[in-house]
Amino acid sequence: MTGRAAGRRAAEAGTAEAESGLVHRRWWTPYLFLAPGLAMVAVFGLWPFVNTVVLSFTDARILRGGSFVGFDNYRRAFADPDFWVAAGNSVLYLVVVVPCLVLLPLALAVLVRPGLPGIGFFRSAFYTPVIASAVVVGLIWQWVLRSDGLVNTVFLKLRLVSEPVPFLTDSTMLLVSAMIVTVWKGLGYYMVFYLAALGNVPASLHEAAALDGAGAVRRFFSITVPQVKPMMLLVGTLSAISALRVFTEIYVLGGESGGPGGGARTLPFLIRQVGLGFAGETGYASALSLLLFLLTLVFSLLGRRLTRGDET
After folding, report:
1. Which residues are CB-contacts of 151 (< 8 A; sequence separation ≥ 6)?
2. Smallest Cα–Cα separation from 260: which of 150, 149, 166?
3. Burial (CB count within 10 angstroms: exposed 0-12, middle 13-18, buried 19+), residue 100
4. Which letter does DSSP use for residue 46 in this model?
């Protein structure tokens, strides 16, 4: 009996060793499953980025290769008035749009959160612009804001203005109109973020504050805002990145020129103009892309630092 038990244990030990050896020999198995995804990231993400960095130091064009020019493209960008106009528009876009997309969706989430009958319809209605194509949204707002559009027609009928408001024909008004479209389209998207955050706020905090006589406004600023502050910082970071990348709204509302004289162009719009066509300056466009990347990185790191500071 003892001999059989010893033999069984020896067999089990041999099997365990064999299995461990098999596992040891197949340590690469997880990487085999990751290989397709890693290959796609390398081909469609890492390589284009590296190639853009390399091209930014050349005078390459669409139909011909370029030679190394050092930092000439960057010096040209800093001396280019169009670059500063576009960079200023991008930063202004961020400064105006981000606070709106941080605060307004929060207020909207608070309004649609109560379990009232039919509240699901309003949630769906507020989210509808998110799933709509940016081009379709831009065309709708173009019809609304043009000189003979809905808004100007109402203003003229009510005698609020004596002539059509140049929403789409003035650079400043065009930029403001594009900001309105961006905010309108992003409200429902970030509302969902806040609905998730509000669901984690303990109801006991509101109940205790209500018993102490705190009204709805006081509870909002004393309980709701501090509890969802990490989400506010996240929304601020995401909306800042999106604001720096805005292109479609300007293009649809202002056309290929980016408004009168290109005065409403943002950095992505300028990059497209510089690098597009048979005479496109790929090297200079790559340098502008790297500058946009660095600008985006600065605001992303700033948002991350603020988030860490809030957590500590």
Report:
1. 144, 145, 165, 167
2. 166
3. middle
4. I
**Residue 98 and residue 235: Cα distance in Å, rounded?**
8
Tokens 């009928």 found at: 157
Q: Which residues contact 209 (CB under 8 A, 6 or more apart)?
A: 218, 219, 222, 223
Q: Which two tokens stand for residue 60?
A: 């390459």
Nearest one of 48, 73, 49, 47 to 60, comparing CA atoms: 73
Per-residue pLDDT of the chain (312 residues; tens, 9 = 90+): 455 655 565 555 555 544 554 445 577 778 888 888 889 988 888 898 999 999 999 988 887 777 888 899 999 999 999 999 999 999 999 999 999 999 999 989 888 877 667 777 778 888 888 888 888 888 889 899 988 888 999 999 888 888 888 888 888 899 999 999 999 999 999 999 998 888 888 887 777 878 777 777 888 888 888 888 889 988 998 899 999 999 988 998 988 888 887 888 999 999 999 988 777 889 999 999 999 999 999 888 887 777 665 555
- Provide the phi-psi class of 196: left if phi over 0, else alpha when psi is between -120 and 50, else beta: alpha
Identity of the residue numbered 244: L
Whether the CA torsion 147, 150, 151, 154 is positive or negative: it is: positive
Q: Tokens 């719009």 identify what position?
A: 269
Burial grade of 74 (CB within 10 A; 0-12, 13-18, 19 or more):
middle
